[in-house]
Amino acid sequence: MRFTFWGVRGSIPVPGPQTVRYGGNTTCIEVHGAQDELIILDAGTGIFQLARQLQADMPLEASIFITHTHWDHIQGLPFFIPIFVAGNRIRIHGAADPVNQRDIHEVLARQMDYAFFPVRDNELAATMEYVTLREGQTTQVGSVTVTPMIMGHPVLNFAYRLESGGRTLVFTGDHEWPYNIYAPGEDGHTEYEAMVQERRAAIIDFFRGADALIIDTAYTPEEYPRRTGWGHGTYDTSIRAAREAGVRQVWLTHHEPTRDDAELERVFARALERNPPPDPASEPAIHLAREGITVTL
Ligand SMILES: [Zn+2]
Ligand SMILES: [Zn+2]
């Protein structure tokens, strides 16, 4: 299995000279299974450059898995050229939104409403299929088994665990670790804490033994208190989780749009200093995700 980052930025694209090393596009990861099955994780603006590269491979079959439908994870989809070309087969997977009862097709069709985009969803030339997933329901894409798990985010967000050819890749999408909403000593703190720990353990289990974990790492611990509840992790929570789950390599992503390349490297270096490996022998390789990098597992 191998994967390539096409977008590593959270919230909004930030192209320009200050972000050229890590890239300014929003989330998109291209994955190839052991038998070269094409899977795309999220459709942020990074998917446009991927689409240009895929033009040489058409007609093609692609399985897109959307973690959640915030703009930065879907806004490139109307510009994914293969959807306009007859002969291509595109299958899009994602969650139903339990708040407004819309399935993945309905949510995505809305961003192609006439007011926003000139081509309508029902005019796409490729064969389009939409699959609404439930937590734990596996999908087989050739040799690749894909399993979704609900993470902590203010709209339903699936992490995906991909297994193929004896290798495992996990991508969290956007994720904030569960936290206790009660202060110590308050009524409900103890019960809530048990729930938090149980949920946390289930998520660590979902990551367990992955060859690569790609994880939402938006904030520094100094920034986090003012952004609690926004649905994102920190450098420290990501590093700790990767160690606890025994993953081999971890890729920190969803970089803050306000951080230029130099600042990104500074906060990363400080995070490594703050979190020295407790056991260097089993320490995962820790990287900042960067546009254009291909990793073979
Ligand atoms: Zn996001
Ligand atoms: Zn989000």
TrEMBL record:
Start and end residues of each Metallo-beta-lactamase domain: 25-210
Gene Ontology MF annotations: hydrolase activity
Keyword Hydrolase listed: yes
UniProt keyword annotation of Hydrolase present: yes
Pfam families: Lactamase_B_2
Assigned keywords, A-Z: Hydrolase
InterPro entries: Metallo-B-lactamas, RibonucZ/Hydroxyglut_hydro
PANTHER family tied to this protein: HYDROLASE C777.06C-RELATED-RELATED, SLL1036 PROTEIN
The protein's name: MBL fold metallo-hydrolase
Species: Thioalkalivibrio halophilus
